[in-house]
Specification:
The complex is a heterodimer.
Chain A: E1 7-10, E2 19-27, E3 36-37, E4 40-41, E5 49-56, E6 59-65, E7 75-82, E8 86-94, E9 99-106
Antiparallel strand pairs in A: 1-2, 2-7, 3-4, 5-6, 5-8, 8-9
Chain B: E1 11-14, E2 17-21, E3 50-52, E4 58-60, H1 100-108, H2 146-154, H3 176-187, H4 222-234, H5 244-247, H6 252-255, E5 265-267, E6 272-274, H7 276-287, H8 297-308, H9 322-335, H10 346-350, E7 361-362, E8 365-366, E9 380-382, E10 387-389, H11 391-402, H12 412-423, E11 434-436
Parallel strand pairs in B: 9-11
Antiparallel strand pairs in B: 1-2, 3-4, 5-6, 7-8, 9-10
Helix pairs in contact in B: 1-3, 2-3, 4-8, 7-8, 9-12
Classes of the chains: A mainly beta, B alpha+beta.
């Protein structure tokens, strides 16, 4: 797989002011799953994304708490109202202190 | 496994040049090196091997979940298979009474045809029906003699030499007694046909598939991420201590720009046509030492990455070159060669002339038309399989409904067939990886 933490955001190519926009966000991450030894879960600090924060014009608009049940290289999609031009920022935080960020410019056409 | 030594003179071969011979002639030869004989380098389930079971039965080795039925008695695409196609035959109609109910269940039986793959009949349980063959919803109104219908099903080639319907009787799929049941059933298909409630049922009114959106968007096509992962393979040292990146400077997207637009093509060193996948399977062991079996995840990923370097560039096969032209002609002959239990040729389903199947529905599947080009998006993500398939696995998959034992994925027959198919893509932009059903 490609490098860990690379975030890609996909938004519609043309957005009108006040429109409800669906963003698709993909992050490269191993999202470690529980390992078992002799049928018992191995106790360790698994590396997985446990928080996703979405900000729009530096204002937090959504927060997701995620668990290990989410797949490797997870892909999130959510809708928001594009009120003004600005930056959509999606931040992924993982259990090993990793912080991965991606941004998309919301422009009106 | 040690190869048997055929020559009597032992030579030391370094980098393709004869460096020193026991005979004492040290001069490097100017004659072209003879092509290296081709040894299949395919994953075990893609080699077309046949294993013998303890009870002596032959069982083909195929990909997990594929049928293991042996079609060994029917001719294949192999160039050295000189057997004829299923011979045209006729049989007397058994003098038994047919049961329309039994006939209908045979008509719908997926293990036999199913006939509904090509023909529409009445009944809302018939789904999805195809329209490759004529609509038989009112066949009974034509009052054709039962024997005529029997003969058409047994082997249509007696009456319609260019029919693309399989010879169900001659090939042994249906016993004459079964055909009598189907004939009895078809006699019951009389009008008026009740009004259609579901436009999806009738292949003539069914909506055509619209695809799966942008195939190059990583949030849409999982194959893109897999291909990007091949960048790691590119710079990974093989057993010989070398990586792809050591000879091909910079990443695959720069180093391989435009390369894939020329493939499949004849490669003199191997004396045959190679696709990118074939080439990787033989070139990588010779250089980095890494094994990159055709059909393996690494081979697929790297092939996709190499082809992605040519995305949006037009396919530009060198069709003036004599070797490519000859191979293309052989590939074309394969395309029109009737093979297997169903006595089908590729052309039956993928061309439009003479009422053939392209752009029609085979069951719920819209048959692709070769003229629009079938290869420039391969390897492709298959939403129905949740996996990436290259052209060869796609071809091997076609072998099963045809009732043909598949060849090895890297067989020259498939390579030349792929060259013929790709010639329809000439000048069209590449777009790899694709996304399809």
């Amino acid at each position: 797989m490609a490098e860990i933490g690379r975030v890609r955001i996909r938004i519609p190519s043309s957005i009108k002011a006040g429109e409800i926009v669906r963003a698709r966000v993909l992050v490269i991450h191993p999202m470690e799953i529980v390992q078992r030894k002799d049928g018992k879960p191995v106790d360790k600090n698994y590396q997985f994304i446990n928080r996703v924060v979405v900000t729009y014009q530096d204002k937090e608009i959504a927060q997701f708490e995620t668990t290990q049940s989410i797949s490797e290289n997870p892909f999130f999609t959510f809708a928001f109202k594009a009120t003004e031009p600005g930056v959509l920022r999606v931040t992924f935080l993982d259990t090993h202190g990793g912080k991965y960020e991606g941004t998309a410019d919301i422009k009106f056409s | 496994m040690p190869r048997p030594l055929l020559g009597v003179v032992l030579c030391v071969v370094v980098g393709g040049f004869v460096a020193g011979c026991a005979k004492g002639e040290a001069k490097p030869s100017t004659a072209p090196t003879p092509p290296t004989p081709w040894v299949s380098r395919t994953v075990p389930e893609g080699r077309g091997d046949i294993k013998t079971l303890p009870d002596g039965k032959r069982q083909p080795v195929r990909y997990p979940g594929w049928t293991t039925e042996d079609f060994g008695r029917f001719r294949t695409y192999a160039y050295d298979d000189t057997r004829p196609e299923v011979p045209v035959a006729k049989a007397p109609m058994p003098a038994i009474a047919g049961d329309p109910k039994r006939g209908r269940s045979l008509f719908l039986d997926r293990n036999v045809g199913p006939c509904t793959g090509c023909h529409l009949i009445q009944g809302s349980d018939v789904w999805p029906a195809g329209n490759v063959g004529p609509d038989l919803s009112t066949y009974g109104d034509r009052n054709l003699p039962a024997e005529h219908t029997f003969n058409v099903i047994y082997d249509p080639r007696h009456l319609f030499p260019h029919s693309i319907m399989p010879p169900w009787g001659s090939s042994g799929v249906l016993k004459p007694e079964d055909i009598v049941q189907i004939v009895a059933f078809l006699g019951t298909q009389k009008g008026p046909v009740p009004p259609e409630k579901d436009p999806e049922r009738d292949p003539t009114t069914r909506a055509k598939p619209v695809g799966f959106g942008d195939n190059l968007d990583p949030t849409n096509n999982p194959a893109v991420l897999r291909a990007e992962g091949a960048d790691l393979l590119w710079s990974k040292q093989g057993p010989s201590g070398k990586a792809c990146a050591d000879c091909h400077a910079s990443g695959p997207l720069q180093a391989m720009k435009g390369v894939a637009t020329r493939y499949p093509q004849f490669v003199a060193k191997y004396g045959r046509v190679l696709s990118i996948e074939d080439f990787l399977s033989v070139h990588t062991p010779e250089t980095t030492g890494a094994v990159l079996l055709e059909g393996s995840a690494d081979n697929l990923d790297l092939a996709m990455r190499v082809k992605m370097a040519s995305n949006e560039m037009p396919l530009s096969l060198d069709l003036t070159r004599a070797e490519n032209r000859a191979a293309l002609e052989r590939g074309k002959a394969s395309f029109y060669k009737s093979v297997g239990q169903r006595d089908h040729a590729c052309a039956d389903c993928h061309t439009v002339e003479n009422g053939r199947g392209a752009d029609k529905f085979l069951g719920g599947r819209l048959l692709a038309n070769v003229e629009r080009g079938l290869t420039r998006h391969f390897p492709t993500w298959r939403t129905s399989q949740g996996d990436v398939w290259d052209m060869r696995k796609r071809m091997q998959w076609c072998m099963t409904p045809l009732g043909v034992n598949m060849l090895a994925a890297d067989a020259v027959e498939y390579a030349e067939l792929e060259l013929y198919l790709t010639s329809f893509d000439q000048g069209k932009p590449m777009s790899v990886p694709g996304i399809r059903h």
